[in-house]
């Protein structure tokens, strides 16, 4: 019997687990070469990686798709990425007219519109309503317990983030689920209509269903006697003026410029080729990341000699434990775009460069054994993204 053929890499180029210092050796056994190509810093970790660091990466491509007439969804929660206890994410797509039915849940919902257009609706506990259309780069936020819906105006896709790592979008309370599990005589008494009015209601949770594309926003408007919701559930993130630095840009959104968003804060980060999200940490909570475009690598340092490097590309989720030092380098030829998201009402970060610049120089020199070459380059102003010609990741 012939032995199984070993996997071959594209164009005959097979990466090997051999570092520049000679550590490692050739892997000729069974292996997933395509996976190794996508994760070069796991196949050949930087010499600075050490210790025990849990997995800080999971791809939506490795999750189960829930398919419905009207759209699909997939999720990354603490079940898929156990370290991610603070936040969970759902990637959802709706067809033109497809509806994520009226529902509500115990967790706050924050969303980033990836492509296409959709209509969102909600009401609050005072009976004030909200109806709006959202497009690429727009956000929405629904506080815990408030009912809402989403309907595709065209093919659309979006990221939903919830302030509980164990959240499941299949375990929300949907209007169809409540109707299906309520006796019809009770429904009749509640709404004051004959029991026959409920002859055709669904007998299970609908979740996502196909409907026709709704009319204009003006034609769909419903006047509430109590008025509209005073704090908008919608925010146009791409309309914000970004913080620009050499190497990229950052747009920060939290309760200061999106007042309704009391449980989730975020930043949309652009890192140009050859640049990096600077060495920093977050003093208020863990960081949940979603990569939108490009490719990059992140090293996370947990302390006590524990550090690990991961590679990321569009569709991946990354995670950084609270107060852990990290940086993100663009390893591609196009801009790297990603979201940093936090279970907090405020976005907060601490720059290592700024920390050193605002600390007495002699203390920094003595602590790190460095001289004026570094000390004189330190900045008192924060640059979230940095880019210097001559650095190891600067394109040549």
Can you put this structure into words, describing what you see?
The chain is mainly beta and 396 residues long. Helix content is 11%, strand content 34%. The strands form four sheets. A seven-stranded antiparallel sheet has the order 1-22-19-24-17-16-15, with no helix packed on it. The chain has a seven-stranded antiparallel sheet with strand order 2-3-4-11-6-9-14, with no helix packed on it. A hairpin with a 2-residue loop joins strand 20 and strand 21 (306-313). The radius of gyration is 25 Å and the shape is globular.
Portion in beta strands:
25-35%
State the helicity in percent bands: 10-25%
**Mean of pLDDT:** 95
Please, what is the oligomeric state? single chain
Number of strands: 26
Cα separation of the termini:
51 Å
For the biggest β-sheet, the strand order reads 1-22-19-24-17-16-15
pLDDT below 50 for ≥5 consecutive residues: which ranges? Answer: 3-7
Characterize the main sheet. Answer: 7 strands, antiparallel
Structural class by SSE content? mainly beta
Number of contiguous helices:
7
Which overall shape is indicated by the principal axes computed on the Cα atoms? Answer: globular
Radius of gyration: 25 Å
Identify the notable features of this structure and list them briefly.
single chain, 396 residues, mainly beta, seven-stranded antiparallel beta sheet, 7 helices, 26 strands, globular, disordered N terminus
Element layout with pairings:
Elements: H1 33-38, H2 40-43, E1 57-59, E2 66-68, E3 71-76, E4 88-94, E5 99-104, E6 109-115, E7 118-123, E8 129-134, E9 138-142, E10 148-152, E11 156-162, E12 173-174, H3 175-180, H4 184-191, E13 208-209, E14 234-236, E15 243-245, E16 248-253, E17 265-271, E18 276-281, E19 287-293, E20 295-303, E21 306-313, E22 316-320, E23 325-330, E24 336-342, E25 350-351, H5 352-357, H6 361-368, H7 372-375, E26 385-386
Antiparallel strand pairs: 1-22, 2-3, 3-4, 4-11, 5-10, 5-12, 5-13, 6-9, 6-11, 7-8, 7-10, 9-14, 15-16, 16-17, 17-24, 18-23, 18-25, 18-26, 19-22, 19-24, 20-21, 20-23
């Amino acid at each position: 019997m012939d032995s199984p053929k070993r996997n071959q890499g594209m164009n005959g180029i097979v990466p090997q687990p051999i570092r520049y210092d000679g550590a490692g050796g050739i892997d000729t056994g069974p292996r997933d070469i395509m996976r190794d190509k996508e994760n070069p810093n796991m196949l050949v970790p930087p010499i600075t990686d050490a210790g025990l660091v849990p997995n800080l990466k999971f791809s939506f491509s490795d999750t189960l798709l829930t398919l419905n007439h009207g759209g699909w969804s997939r999720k990354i929660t603490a079940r898929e990425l156990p370290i991610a206890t603070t936040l969970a994410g759902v990637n959802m797509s709706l067809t033109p007219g497809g509806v994520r039915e009226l529902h509500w849940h115990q967790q706050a919902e924050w969303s980033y519109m990836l492509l296409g257009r959709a209509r969102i609706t909600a009401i609050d506990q005072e009976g004030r309503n909200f109806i709006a259309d959202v497009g690429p780069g727009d956000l929405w936020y629904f506080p815990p317990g408030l009912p809402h819906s989403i309907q595709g105006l065209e093919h659309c896709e979006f990221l939903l983030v919830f302030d509980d790592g164990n959240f499941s979008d299949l375990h929300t309370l949907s209007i169809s689920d409540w109707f299906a599990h309520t006796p019809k005589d009770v429904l009749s008494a509640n709404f004051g209509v004959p029991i026959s009015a409920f002859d055709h209601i669904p007998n299970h949770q609908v979740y996502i269903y196909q409907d026709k594309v709704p009319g204009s926003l003006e034609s769909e408007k419903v006047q509430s006697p109590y008025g509209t919701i005073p704090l908008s559930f919608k925010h146009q993130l791409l309309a914000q003026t970004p913080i620009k630095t050499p190497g990229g840009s950052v747009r920060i959104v939290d309760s200061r410029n999106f007042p309704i968003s009391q449980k989730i804060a975020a930043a949309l980060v652009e890192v140009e080729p050859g640049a990096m999200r600077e060495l920093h940490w977050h003093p208020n909570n863990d960081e949940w990341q979603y990569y939108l475009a490009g490719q990059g690598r992140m090293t996370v340092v947990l302390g006590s000699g524990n550090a690990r490097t991961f590679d990321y590309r569009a569709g991946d989720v990354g995670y950084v434990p609270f107060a852990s030092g990290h940086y993100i380098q663009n390893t591609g030829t196009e801009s790297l775009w990603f979201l940093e998201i936090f279970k907090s009402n405020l976005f907060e970060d601490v720059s290592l460069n700024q920390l050193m610049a605002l600390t007495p120089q002699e203390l920094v020199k003595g602590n790190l054994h460095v001289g004026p070459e570094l000390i004189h380059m330190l900045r008192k102003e924060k640059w979230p993204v940095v880019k210097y010609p001559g650095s190891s990741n600067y394109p040549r």
